């Protein structure tokens, strides 16, 4: 999502292309058809001369087989963990862009899509204010569009950290009370001054950097009640 123009591009259920976010970015330049799924997304990618690629490598197959064996041997939930990559960018003109990319929930049902392609839920950007993006269990992240809500709260004058805290933790409480449980939910946010904040109910890693400060990796931990998080630099 381009925070200066609100242009959005998204794909879901795309097969056979290595960099779906590049295809999504191309879609964001279109006036219509900004969100494509399945065969339609693949057809667009082909028409735009993106290079098709077999994504089932020997290495990825080996990782998948090992994970299947681990789930069976340790009686784990096949849906534990998440692998989304989310990023917020800010340039010298205070223009902002946000993007997400994921291969999806492990052992998901064919056709399943989470929050990643959905504006407002998986991501949101407004260059006059800031941007936010999420990672975690898409089924729960879609239940309230908190990426948009965090940006809206920053627009009222809250810092990115205060906006994350105010939006995310009450929702986690609501989910537990009304839905019975809350999955893994993590958010990052940045305003157009480069200030940032995070909120999470699980152990969560993220990185921050700019041209004057080499990127640093952080790890965040929620408190026992899942009402606040602390973080520290990963040494």
Automatic annotation (TrEMBL):
GO cellular component, one term: cytoplasm
Pfam families: Asparaginase_2
Highest taxon, organism lineage: Bacteria
Binding site for substrate: 112-115, 135-138
Single GO term (MF): hydrolase activity, acting on carbon-nitrogen (but not peptide) bonds, in linear amides
Protein name: AsnA2 protein
Species classification: Bacteria, Bacillati, Bacillota, Bacilli, Lactobacillales
């Amino acid at each position: 999502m381009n925070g200066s123009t609100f242009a959005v591009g998204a794909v879901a259920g795309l097969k056979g292309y290595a960099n779906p976010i590049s295809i999504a970015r191309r879609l964001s330049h279109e006036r219509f058809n900004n969100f494509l799924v399945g065969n339609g997304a693949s057809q667009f990618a082909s028409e735009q001369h993106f290079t098709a690629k077999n994504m089932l490598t020997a290495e990825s197959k080996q990782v998948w087989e090992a994970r299947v064996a681990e789930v069976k041997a340790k009686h784990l939930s096949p849906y534990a963990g998440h692998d989304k990559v989310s990023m917020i960018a800010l340039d010298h003109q205070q223009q902002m862009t946000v993007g997400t990319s994921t291969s999806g929930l492990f052992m998901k049902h064919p056709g399943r899509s989470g929050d990643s392609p959905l504006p407002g839920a998986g991501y949101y950007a407004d260059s006059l204010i800031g941007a936010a993006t999420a990672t975690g269990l898409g089924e729960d992240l879609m239940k309230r569009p908190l990426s948009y809500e965090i940006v809206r709260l920053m627009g009222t004058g809250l810092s990115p950290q205060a906006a994350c805290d105010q939006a995310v933790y009450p929702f986690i409480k609501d989910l537990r009370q009304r839905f019975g449980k809350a999955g893994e939910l993590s958010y990052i946010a940045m305003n157009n001054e480069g200030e940032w904040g995070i909120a999470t109910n699980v152990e969560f890693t993220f990185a921050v950097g700019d041209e004057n400060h080499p990127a640093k990796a952080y790890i965040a931990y929620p408190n026992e009640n899942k009402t606040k998080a602390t973080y520290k630099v990963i040494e």
